[in-house]
Amino acid sequence: MKKVLFLMVGVLALGLVFAGCSHIANITTPGTTETEGVAYLTRSPEFDPTVVTLLAGQDLAVGTVEVWDDGVQLCVTYKLSADAIQDGWLIYETHWDAGELDTDIPINKKGNPQVGLFSGGDDNLGGVASYSECKTFEELGIVCDEAQIKVATHAVVGQRDVNCPAVMYGTSGVSGDLDKIYEIDVNGLTSTMLFNTSPLNPHINGPNGNAYDPDNNWLYYSKYASPDYLYFYDFVNLVNNPAGSLPGGQVASGGWYNGKFYYFPQQSGKLYETSFNLDGTIANTTLLCDTGINFGAFGDIAITQDGLIYGSSNMNPARFWSVDLMNGYQYTEISEMPHMQLAFGSDGLLYGHDANDGNFYWIDPLNGVRSLIGPVNGLKFTDLASGPYAPCDPSNVTAWAGETRFVVKGNWATYFTYDPECQCTEQFWQIGTPDGPVNPIAGSAEYPANEVWYETFNYVVGTDEDPINSPSIPGYIGSCNVCDIVSGRPCTDTTERLNIQFELYCTHEEGELALIYDRYGSETDTLYFDFDGTPFATVVATEGGFKQFTLPLPASAAGTHTISIAYEGGGDANGHYIDYLELV
User: Fold this and answer.
1) Considering the domain boundaries, does residue 569 fall inside one?
2) Range of the domain at 100
3) In total, how many domains does the chain have?
4) Are residues 86 and 196 in the same domain?
5) Can you spell out the DSSP letters for 100-157?
6) What is the DSSP letter of 498?
7) CATH value at residue 402
8) pLDDT tens across 537-563, in order?
């Protein structure tokens, strides 16, 4: 089934390959330091969703279900309330469907819903505070003609055992002795000092890149050096051991999965995998992929039991994201979130620690929403490692939204009615300011000028705070050794291929959409749509001149798409400036 998890309006299986890793559309959910709200970007932002109370066990309000449509897709969002989250409630399963009873929404002979046959949902969420999914009206087998439809939304919600330990490990790097590692129980708000890594290569940041090996009961950690060095602590023999050096740069984020250590070096987007000999020493380290993204300063990573890396890094702004080890190293930007240390507790839930305020938070992995827990013994931790996996079973109950029962007696399952909007409003975008026929350097002044060249630059629409006045893309399309020397100003960043990834909310015929591409100077560019290998446009202008191109786009369905601008050029040391780009 095709899922659209918070704001991801498209099919997750697209797997567009950027610089060795695949990327998925970004989502942006700014929040606060308490239980945070989510800024929902629906497929048509001006539509107001229909909101219905989600009841657990028939009479306990635990949150809401929101429904909206854009004429192409029907979208459903489950959201637990802040009070329910604080009381330990989470969503473990969802099932939903829409249309008419029996013909579209499966029911048995007695009229009871057959949730296992519903079109939408996920029965293996593992405990989240929110869930969202969109399905086309075609997938649901119904026609969007503004006629009222029925919507059935079922969930299994569970209340966590408040006494269940949430054990993890952490370095107290900004409070007290900088080389100590602690065992932390976030649910109990307690910590116990386990061992001291000194005098093994003492450093002001202490041990970092912590990762727990549950099979051998060893805790790996790195120490900054040139190159960084990996050690491990043996919980059985109570001794620190050297493992070997790590390539790639300073290792401030590490995680463990299936017997191997994974890490991203600082100021990098490269993912490394380290395997080990039986004695715990390093056997081999392999560069798995380069996301093409500079994650800045970490932050941390934490890895699920099935190989999904969650990461927090101090980009601009700081972000929460994931990389899927089991699905082509697919990179997904999830939300904006303050710089956090991350770990899964032994209860199987994802936690974060803010070394600035000293607080721990529970993190909803689907959208990066944080719920405040509090400090632990006044310590501030600069790195965390997930603990041994030993979750406690929650107390689960059924939840439904709506006031109309499927049957009068017996099963209390309910549904509600919804009036489709049956409209689709596209969201357009613009990068840079339209300066027109001016000096090329002045016309491209809003773009970065750090004298950096990228063979390929991958840009996701929505990642810049101000893409018009301060875009992050290179402002020069050209070859690797081109650099216009301008007195008192560094050279404009350059790329040989610019990939722009964006979302379409609606389906469009050929020529219905167009890319406005204003540029200065000569040289040839070839433009591609969705990496299909067939150019949809080729553009060229006179030397030093300004030219505006309006380029019709191919037919396109709602979902994730990419426009690529490839420099075909005229040899080395050539290229041209970008004025601005706009989808209209």
Assistant:
1) yes
2) 42-160+395-418
3) 3
4) no
5) SBTTTB-B-TTS-B-GGG-SEEES---SBSEEEEEEEHHHHT---SS--EEEEEEEEE
6) E
7) 2.60.40
8) 999 877 767 889 999 999 988 788 999
Instruction: Output the pTM of the full model.
Output: 0.64
* pLDDT given at position 366: 84
Partners of 147 in the β-ladder: none
Residue 5 pLDDT level (bands cut at 50, 70, 90): very low
Say which CATH number the domain at 576 has.
Answer: 2.60.120
Check if the beta carbon of residue 459 is closer than 8 Å to that of residue 498: yes
SS (H, E, C) 326-356: CCCCEEEEEEECCCCEEEECCCCCEEEECCC
CATH number at residue 341: 2.120.10.30
Question: Could you tell me if residue 256 is inside a domain?
Answer: yes
In order, the DSSP letters of 397-444 are: EEEEE-SEESSSSS---EEEEE----------EEES----SS-HHHHT
Q: What integer is the mean pLDDT of 395-419? A: 94
* Cα torsion 407, 411, 412, 415: sign: negative
Q: Are residues 579 and 489 in the same domain?
A: yes
Same domain, 380 and 448: no
Kindly state whether residue 13 falls inside one of the protein's structural domains: no
Cβ–Cβ < 8 Å for 314, 322: no
Q: Quick one: 378 and 469 in the same domain?
A: no
Check whether 25 has a pLDDT greater than 70.
Answer: no
What is the C-alpha separation between 363 and 349, in angstroms, rounded? 8
Q: Are residues 232 and 359 in the same domain?
A: yes
560 and 516 housed in the same domain = yes
Over residues 441-479, the pLDDT tens digits come to 778 889 988 888 888 898 999 889 899 999 999 998 887
* Helix or strand (DSSP H, E) at 85: helix 82-86
* Coil vs helix vs strand at 458: strand
Is 22 within the bounds of a domain?
no
For residues 175 and 242, what is the distance between their CA atoms, to the nearest angstrom? Answer: 25
Phi/psi at 95 (5° precision): -145, 130
Least confident range of 200-214, 420-434, 520-534, 551-565: 200-214
Q: What is the tens place of the pLDDT at every residue in 352-369?
A: 999 889 999 999 998 898
Give per-residue pLDDT as tens, 146-187: 789 999 999 999 998 878 899 999 988 654 566 789 999 999
- Could you tell me which of 268, 312, 322 has the C-alpha nearest to residue 292? 268
